[in-house]
């Protein structure tokens, strides 16, 4: 069997780090199994779907390292859904219902008040052709429900009907179809719901595995029933835990601060985002993974926890810093040029250990080329003034810092912080930063002299 998976976002907004989890899980699974990954846009909602969002989603996925093998759009496949819907209608498995949303809600409220589950009573199925014609004469348009196979003979007398499957993440699962309402597959305006279009697409595109969030578990039994009604073998399912905030709050497209685009603009590395999105909520340590190839090797659905995957956005910064500290010069050379830096391996190796993002190198480049806001405390003014006299002659090398501070120590008796900090402050304007031994040659003699009083 050829493994085929899909990620099917609605292009109604930008994807966030929570969306990236199922996208990454599916892509990593396909890579591990030698399969295919389909990016399939659920864009049948013509009001909310926008091309700009589709382009943004594709851009964000490619930034993360996800290159789709195929890109499909459901808006191109409406005729296919028409054929499958007619198949279900002809089989008596898709029936029209004329209740308005308000009428349905009032009915559910009455059921709750009586202590009954708010399950649809299949009133639409009882109506005769004449009754339906009369309702349509009033101007009503039907929505269409799928008749769940939760009965023997009489659809108005349901019985417990467990649909079971072996979940790749959660083990044996089962859902009772008798506890559920017949799902609406076609809206009153004639548009299809994602539940239906997704199944038709999965059948025609040969999707073998569906990996998605645990919030879809209850839908799976219904979808398996629809697969079988369309004479298709259901895919293998896996439901991973959802990525949430530390407070357990779910993520949504409205929370723009966690969008993939915003994380990219903050200068975060794609592998920091991918590492956190994939490893959080598993039995594996959340650590920065350097490449997608290594992440493929680490990926293991059996390590996914059944509890929620809580993450701290601040953790991204730590992961990112650890990745940046290991980036070789060749990997960042072009990015440094784009930052306005005249790059060299020596400069990058000097400053990278102090960078949370590659973009932080701009600050240290300013320290090198100047100007800087030199800082001199009152108690250090005399010491800093004397420092110029003891600056070693000749080229500034990595040995210059040690020779300079040794000479000043012998002259002034200062040592430790009292010796090093005033020099760092006057030359860089900072209390902390790269090793002055390596930084001093980059600053150069003339800049050093210009910054000393």
Automatic annotation (TrEMBL):
Its main location: cytoplasm. This is Glutamate--tRNA ligase. Catalyzes the attachment of glutamate to tRNA(Glu) in a two-step reaction: glutamate is first activated by ATP to form Glu-AMP and then transferred to the acceptor end of tRNA(Glu). It is found in: Cytoplasm. Residues 106-131 are annotated as: Disordered. Pfam families: Anticodon_2, tRNA-synt_1c. Keywords: Aminoacyl-tRNA synthetase, ATP-binding, Cytoplasm, Ligase, Nucleotide-binding, Protein biosynthesis. Its EC number is 6.1.1.17. Residues 378-452 form the Aminoacyl-tRNA synthetase class I anticodon-binding domain. A motif ('KMSKS' region) lies at residues 250-254. ATP binds at residue 253. GO terms for molecular function: glutamate-tRNA ligase activity. It is an enzyme of class 6 (ligase). PANTHER family: GLUTAMATE--TRNA LIGASE, GLUTAMATE--TRNA LIGASE, MITOCHONDRIAL-RELATED.
